[in-house]
UniProtKB/TrEMBL annotation:
Signal peptide: 1-23
Superkingdom field: Bacteria
InterPro entries recorded: SGNH_hydro_sf
Name the record gives this protein: SGNH/GDSL hydrolase family protein
Entry keyword set: Signal
GO molecular-function terms, A-Z: hydrolase activity, acting on ester bonds
Length: 258
């Protein structure tokens, strides 16, 4: 009897341990925490920073198909964008998309400078919107990942201000952070020959979008994007892709070690 009880307790302990290891942590313990779970069904709410170059979700999907088992079968990525949109404009979209599908992860991207705008009402609108949308997402069982945007090409000093703003709102709302802006800064430092910007110095070039996709891959799956395919239907060289993948992986690792 004692042996049976001991075996039963051991089995229960193993099951619970397995659940702890593989459980989905809905509320991030910190903005720099590593994500767990499968994170297969992703909705990305953003603006032109997201939809340039055939949309971030497409580039992320293509990258995952080359790196995840079975060509990432069962994984899906939807981009919901509004040109020049502020984060709060997406609240109705978030509510509607939640009626269509259960999302493992919801990605929230504010307007490029919205979190650090010189206008206090813009900053307050971003904060209020993020808190409300994170609550909606969490109530629906979705994790929240903030898309840390990058500095304008002529204003590199914006990098740290944006990084801090996204870390603060993630801390307040139980969200994770994809440190895309930090990866942009690091790439420009290491590989200035790779142009991450569109001609306006604000929107991303294809290389910029691919770098962002690589950061999201590393953030969502705790796996290096190094070795992934180059962007589909592009002339990006494998060497350039590998440099961007390496920057993304190293940036995410460094950010999550804080």
């Amino acid at each position: 009897m004692k042996l049976r009880l001991r075996a039963s307790l051991l089995t229960t302990t193993l099951i619970l341990s397995s659940q702890v290891v593989y459980a989905d942590t809905l509320i991030a313990p910190s903005p720099t925490a590593r994500m767990d779970g499968g994170n297969k069904v992703i909705a990305i709410y953003g603006n032109s920073y997201t939809h340039y170059n055939n949309n971030l979700n497409t580039r992320l999907r293509d990258l995952t198909r080359s790196l995840l088992p079975n060509n990432a079968e069962g994984y899906s990525y939807r981009g919901i964008t509004i040109s020049s949109g502020e984060l709060g404009w997406h609240e109705p979209n978030l509510r509607f998309q939640n009626t269509l599908k259960s999302w493992d992860v919801v990605v929230l991207q504010g307007n490029s400078m919205e979190p650090i705008s010189k206008k206090s009402n813009s900053r307050e609108y971003f904060q209020t919107s993020a808190k409300k949308m994170a609550e909606i997402a969490h109530d629906a069982g979705s994790k929240v990942v903030y898309f840390m945007t990058w500095a304008q090409k002529s204003h590199p000093e914006q990098t740290q201000a944006l990084a801090k703003a996204y870390m603060v709102i993630a801390e307040e709302t139980g969200g994770y952070v994809a440190p895309v802006g930090l990866a942009f800064a690091q790439s420009m430092k290491q590989y200035p020959e790779i142009n991450l910007y569109h001609s306006d110095g604000k929107h991303p070039s294809l290389a910029g979008t691919y770098l962002a996709a690589s950061v999201f891959f590393a953030t969502l799956y705790n796996q290096s994007p190094i070795g992934g395919e180059t962007p589909a239907d592009s002339d990006m060289s494998p060497e350039t892709a590998r440099k961007l993948q390496t920057v993304a992986w190293e940036t995410v690792q460094s950010y999550q070690s804080k």
